[in-house]
TrEMBL record, chain A:
Record-linked InterPro entries: Acyl-CoA_Oxase/DH_mid-dom (IPR006091), Acyl-CoA_Oxase/DH_mid-dom_sf (IPR046373), AcylCo_DH-like_C (IPR036250), AcylCo_DH/oxidase_C (IPR009075), AcylCoA_DH/ox_N (IPR013786), AcylCoA_DH/ox_N_sf (IPR037069), AcylCoA_DH/oxidase_NM_dom_sf (IPR009100)
Organism: Parerythrobacter jejuensis
Keywords: FAD, Flavoprotein, Oxidoreductase
Protein name: Acyl-CoA dehydrogenase
UniProt key word Ion transport: no
Gene Ontology MF, one: flavin adenine dinucleotide binding
Keyword Oxidoreductase: yes
Cofactor requirements of the protein: FAD
Xref: SUPFAM superfamilies: Acyl-CoA dehydrogenase C-terminal domain-like, Acyl-CoA dehydrogenase NM domain-like
TrEMBL record, chain B:
Residue intervals of the Acyl-CoA dehydrogenase/oxidase C-terminal domain: 241-387
Name of protein: Acyl-CoA dehydrogenase
Requisite cofactors: FAD
Record InterPro entries: Acyl-CoA_Oxase/DH_mid-dom (IPR006091), Acyl-CoA_Oxase/DH_mid-dom_sf (IPR046373), AcylCo_DH-like_C (IPR036250), AcylCo_DH/oxidase_C (IPR009075), AcylCoA_DH/ox_N (IPR013786), AcylCoA_DH/ox_N_sf (IPR037069), AcylCoA_DH/oxidase_NM_dom_sf (IPR009100), Mycobact_Acyl-CoA_DH (IPR052161)
Length: 379, 392
C-alpha cells in the first residue's frame, strides 16, 4: 500500500479539514468552553455533529451502524482535531473504546455502539494507575462475586471520566500486580454504584478524573472478551489509541508550525520581516523536516495496524515517540518565535503548547515508547 | 494472480537462480562494490557472474527503457524488484555516478544519439563517470565557478581546476560544469562530457580524515573538447550556456542518493550493538532507543517519499529535506556505533576492526552533510522553496 492517502481518504481529509476548521475552530470550541469553565471540557452539540458527519463510527463495523473503516481514516479526523485543538471525545470513544468493543459480545455492542455512532454517548478508558502510563502493572482488582464481579481500585488520568456514559476499565482478575496475564477488561456503566470521580481540569482545559472503585458490583456480562485473557485486547486498544494520539499530535505540530511560519512572514523587526533571518529560517526548516518525518511514521503505523501486521506495535511506539518529540519541538519553537506575544493568552500558539503537553503524556510519553521500541527490538 | 504478483514470483525465481550466495552478504568495503569502467577488475568470480547476469537482464538499471540497456520496468515493478532484492540482501550488481546522476539527466535532457551511446555504456558498466562541479572557490555557491571553456569553432579549450572530484583518478569520463559565457552568472554555464584521458586533464588525490583518498583535485590545462562526438551526439547536455538547468536536475538525484531514501542509511542499530556490549550503559541504551525511533520514522519517510515521487505528489524541493534529515541521522548513527564499540572501535588498523572500519566509517560520514550540498544549504532551500520564507 503506498504511504499516502487514496482518493477516498483525500476526500475525507478535505471534509474533515473543512468541518474542523469551521465548526471545531479554536474560538468556537476550545476557547468558548474554556471561558465558560465547562465541566465536560467539550460541547455535546459538536459531538452530535461528529455523528452526523459519520466520524464517530469510523472504526465501528457496518452491522453496528458504523463505517467499518480503519486507523488511517480515524487518523485523518484526528489530525484535523489536532490542528484545530478541537475538544471532543473522539480519541477515547471512537478510537480506544471502539477498538475494545470490537471484542465485546453482540449484546454489549448492541447496547453501546448505537449511542456512540449517533454522537449521543461518550466513553472513557481507565488504564493508568499513577502519574505515568505503565500498563504492565495493573493493581485494580475484580473479584468473582456470584455471577459477576466486585471491582476495587483507583484509576488516574481518565480523560472525560466524569462525562462518560461507560468506562472501559482494565482490572486484574488473577495473579499479582506486575503479571502479564490475569487481566480482564470491563465495560462499567456510568451509574455503577460505588464508583466515584474526582474531576480535575488539566493544563489544556480538558477534563480528567481520578476514579475510585470501591467494591463496584458488575454483572458477568460487563466483561469485554474473556476473563483473565484481556491483555491482548488491552494492547490492541492501547496501540490504536497511541497511533490515534500520534495522529492528533501531528495535527498539533502542523497547526503550531503553520501559525509560526505565517508569523515569520508578517512580523517586522530591524526593518525586515523576521522570516528573513537565517537563524530562524534554519530552525523553521528543521522543524518542517521533523514534522514530515513524524507524519510518515504515523501513516506507516496506521497502515500496519489496519493490516494486522506483527510490526504494528513497534511502529505504534515509533510513531508515538517521534510525534511526542516533534510536536514538542513545534510548540516550543512556536512560542519562542512569536516573541513576547507568544506568552499571551490572546494568541493561540500557547494553546498548542498546552495541548501538546497533555497529548505527550497520554498513553505513554517519548521515553516510555522509546523504551518499548528497544524492548520490541530485543535490547 | 495479478500481473505484479506473477512478476514477483518470476523475479524471486530468477534471483534465486542467478544471485550467488557471496553476493547476498552486506557490502563491507569499496571492493565489494563493482563500479565498472575501462580498467575495472572483479573481486571474485561471483561478483563477475552476478554483474553479467544483471547486465544481460537489464537489471543494472531496471527502470531505464530496454533500448538504453535497462529492463523497462514500470515503477511498480521496479519497487517489487527492489523489495525482492532486499529480501535476500542482494548487493547492487553495479554502482556508478553514471547510474545515479548522469543517467537520469540524460534521460531527461539528452539527445537520442546521446542516450543510445552513453546510457548503454553506463548500463553495461563500460564507462565509469565522475562529477566535476566543485572548485576551490565554488562549493555551496556553485554558480560562481571559474573553469572556462573558450569557443574555438568546432571545439572548446578548457582551463581551470575542480576539487573533490570523487574517484576522478579511476574515472574514464567526466560530466563537468564549464563557464562558456563570463557575462551571465546562471546562463553562462555549459554541462560538458569529455574523456579524462584527453591531453591536459590530470588528477591528484586528496587524503581525507578517514585515511582514505577516493577524492581528487582535477586540473584542466588547455584540454581540447570537441563539440560533437558524432551525429546527434553533442558534447554538451542541454543547450550551450544552459547547463545550470541540467546541473540542478542532477543535484536532485544526487541528494536522493546520499539521503539513503533508497534504503541505504535507514537501518536501526540498537539490537545489533546491544548484543556486543554486555554492560550497556542505561543512558547509551536510551540514546540508541531514541535513535532507532528516528531511524524507523525516517525509513517510513523514505518509503513515503518514493511512493509520492512516483505519482508526482512530492514537492519538488522535497529531496533537500530527505538529504538533510538522512545525512544528519547517518552521522548520529556512526557516533553511536563508536560509543557502543568503546576502545575497540578506536583501533585504526587491527584485524578485530577489519582495518579500522568503525572509525573510518564514522569519519567518512561527516562528509554526508557536506557533499552534494551542505545541510545549511538544504535548510536554505527548504525555508525558501517549501516554507516560502522571505529574502535572498
Ligand atoms: C513576560 C514578559 C514580561 C516583559 N516585561 C517587560 C517590561 O517590564 N518592560 C518592557 O519594556 N518590556 C517587557 N517585555 C517585552 C520583552 O522585552 C520583548 O518581548 C522582547 O524584547 C522581544 O520582543 P518582541 O516580543 O517584540 O519579539 P520580536 O522582536 O518580534 O521577536 C520575534 C521573534 O523573532 C526573533 N528575532 C527578532 N529579531 C531577530 C534577529 N535580528 N535575528 C534573529 N531572530 C530575531 C526573536 O528572537 C523572536 O524569536 C516583557 C515580555 C514578556 C514576555
Ligand atoms: C567526500 C566528498 C565528496 C565530494 N564529491 C564531489 C564530487 O564528486 N564532485 C564535485 O563536484 N564535488 C564533490 N564534493 C564537493 C561538495 O559538493 C562541496 O564540498 C560542497 O558543495 C560544499 O562546498 P565547500 O566545500 O566549498 O564549502 P563552503 O561552500 O565553503 O561552505 C563552508 C561552510 O559554510 C556554510 N555555508 C556556505 N554557504 C552558506 C549559506 N548561504 N548559508 C549558510 N551556510 C553556508 C556551509 O554549509 C559550510 O558549513 C564532495 C565533497 C566531499 C566532502
Amino acid at each position: 500500500m503506498p504511504l499516502y492517502h487514496n482518493d477516498d481518504q483525500a476526500m475525507l481529509a478535505e471534509s474533515a479539514g473543512q468541518f474542523m476548521g469551521e465548526e471545531g475552530a479554536i474560538a468556537r470550541q476550545l476557547r468558548h468552553w474554556r471561558d465558560r469553565d465547562c465541566k465536560d471540557g467539550f460541547g455535546h452539540d459538536l459531538w452530535k455533529q461528529f455523528g452526523e458527519m459519520g466520524f464517530t463510527g469510523i472504526l465501528v463495523d457496518e452491522d453496528n451502524g458504523g463505517l467499518g473503516m480503519g486507523h488511517v481514516e480515524a487518523g485523518i479526523v484526528l489530525e484535523e482535531v489536532g490542528r484545530n485543538l478541537t475538544p471532543s471525545p473522539f480519541l477515547t470513544s471512537s478510537v480506544l473504546a471502539a477498538t475494545a468493543l470490537k471484542h465485546g459480545s453482540d449484546d454489549m455492542r448492541g447496547r453501546y455502539l448505537p449511542g456512540l455512532v449517533a454522537g449521543d454517548s461518550v466513553f472513557a478508558v481507565a488504564v493508568d494507575e499513577g502519574a505515568k502510563h505503565n500498563p504492565s502493572r495493573i493493581a485494580t482488582r475484580a473479584e468473582k462475586s456470584g455471577n459477576g464481579f466486585k471491582l476495587s481500585g483507583k484509576k488516574d488520568f481518565v480523560i472525560q471520566g466524569a462525562s462518560a456514559d461507560m468506562l472501559v476499565v482494565a482490572a486484574r482478575t488473577s495473579g499479582s500486580d506486575g503479571d502479564e496475564n490475569g487481566i480482564t477488561l470491563f465495560a462499567v456503566p456510568k451509574d455503577a454504584t460505588n464508583m466515584s470521580h474526582d474531576a480535575v481540569r488539566l493544563v489544556d482545559s480538558s477534563m480528567a478524573t481520578h476514579t475510585t472503585f470501591d467494591a463496584v458490583e458488575l454483572d458477568g456480562d460487563a466483561v469485554i472478551g474473556e476473563v483473565d485473557n484481556g491483555r491482548a485486547i488491552l494492547d490492541a486498544m492501547l496501540d490504536a489509541g497511541r497511533v490515534g494520539s500520534a495522529a492528533e499530535g501531528v495535527g498539533v505540530a502542523r497547526g503550531a508550525m503553520d501559525l509560526t511560519v505565517d508569523y515569520l512572514k508578517q512580523r517586522k523587526q530591524f526593518g525586515t520581516l523576521i522570516g528573513e533571518f537565517q537563524a530562524l529560517q534554519h530552525r523553521a526548516a528543521h522543524l518542517y523536516s521533523e514534522v514530515e518525518i513524524a507524519r510518515a511514521a504515523v501513516i506507516k503505523a496506521q497502515q500496519l495496524l489496519d493490516g494486522d501486521s506483527d510490526k504494528a506495535s513497534l511502529m505504534a511506539s515509533v510513531a508515538k515517540a517521534k510525534v511526542a518529540k516533534t510536536a514538542g519541538l513545534a510548540v516550543r519553537e512556536g512560542v519562542q518565535m512569536h516573541g513576547g506575544i507568544g506568552m499571551t493568552d490572546e494568541y493561540d500558539i500557547g494553546l498548542y503548547m498546552k495541548r501538546d503537553r497533555a497529548l505527550q503524556e497520554f498513553l505513554g510519553d517519548a521515553y516510555f515508547h522509546a523504551n518499548r521500541v528497544a524492548e520490541l527490538s530485543g535490547y | 494472480m495479478s500481473d505484479l504478483e506473477t512478476f514477483r514470483s518470476e523475479t524471486r525465481a530468477w534471483l534465486e537462480a542467478n544471485c550467488p550466495a557471496e553476493m547476498r552478504e552486506p557490502v563491507r568495503d569499496d571492493g565489494d562494490v563493482y563500479w565498472g569502467g575501462r580498467n575495472a577488475t572483479f573481486k571474485s568470480d561471483a561478483q563477475k557472474a552476478w554483474f553479467e547476469a544483471c547486465r544481460d537482464k537489464g537489471y543494472t538499471v531496471p527502470a531505464w527503457p530496454k533500448e538504453y540497456g535497462g529492463a523497462g520496468l514500470s515503477p511498480a515493478e521496479a519497487k517489487v524488484l527492489r523489495e525482492v532484492m532486499a529480501s535476500i540482501n542482494a548487493r547492487p550488481p553495479l554502482s556508478s555516478f553514471g547510474i545515479w546522476m548522469l543517467g537520469p539527466a540524460l534521460l531527461h535532457f539528452g539527445t537520442e544519439g546521446q542516450k543510445q551511446r552513453f546510457l548503454n555504456e553506463i548500463a553495461r558498466g563500460e564507462i565509469r563517470w565522475c562529477q566535476g562541479y566543485s572548485e576551490p572557490g565554488s562549493g555551496s555557491d556553485l554558480v560562481s565557478l571559474q573553469t572556462y571553456g573558450e569557443d574555438k569553432g568546432d571545439h572548446w579549450v578548457v582551463n581551470g581546476q575542480k576539487v573533490w572530484t570523487s574517484y576522478a583518478d579511476k574515472a574514464d569520463w567526466i560530466f563537468c560544469l564549464v563557464r562558456t559565457d563570463k557575462n551571465d552568472k546562471y546562463r553562462g554555464i555549459t554541462f560538458m562530457l569529455f574523456d579524462m584521458a584527453t591531453a591536459g586533464a590530470s588528477t591528484k588525490p586528496i587524503l581525507l580524515i578517514s585515511g582514505n583518498s577516493p577524492f581528487c583535485e582535477t586540473f584542466f590545462d588547455d584540454v581540447k573538447v570537441p563539440k560533437s562526438y558524432g551525429e546527434d551526439v553533442p558534447a554538451q547536455v542541454g543547450e550551450i550556456n544552459r547547463g545550470w538547468d541540467v546541473a540542478k536536475y542532477l543535484l536532485g538525484h544526487e541528494r536522493e542518493m546520499i539521503s539513503g531514501a533508497d534504503g541505504g542509511n535507514t537501518g536501526t542499530i540498537g539490537g545489533a550493538l546491544s548484543r556486543n556490549s554486555v554492560d550497556m550503559d542505561p543512558l547509551l541504551r536510551a540514546e540508541l532507543a531514541m535513535f532507532d525511533v528516528d531511524a524507523l520514522a525516517y525509513a517510513a519517510m523514505g518509503e513515503k517519499f518514493l511512493d509520492e515521487i512516483k505519482v508526482g505528489k512530492a514537492h519538488p524541493a522535497q529531496p533537500n529535506m530527505m538529504k538533510y534529515a538522512g545525512t544528519e541521522l547517518n552521522k548520529r548513527r556512526h557516533e553511536l556505533i563508536m560509543s557502543a564499540g568503546g576502545s575497540t572501535a578506536l583501533e585504526w588498523d587491527s584485524e578485530e576492526t577489519e582495518g579500522g572500519k568503525p572509525s573510518r566509517n564514522w569519519l567518512r560520514t561527516k562528509a554526508n552533510s557536506i557533499e552534494g550540498g551542505t545541510s545549511e544549504v538544504m535548510l536554505n532551500v527548504i525555508s525558501k522553496r517549501i516554507l516560502e520564507l522571505p529574502g535572498g
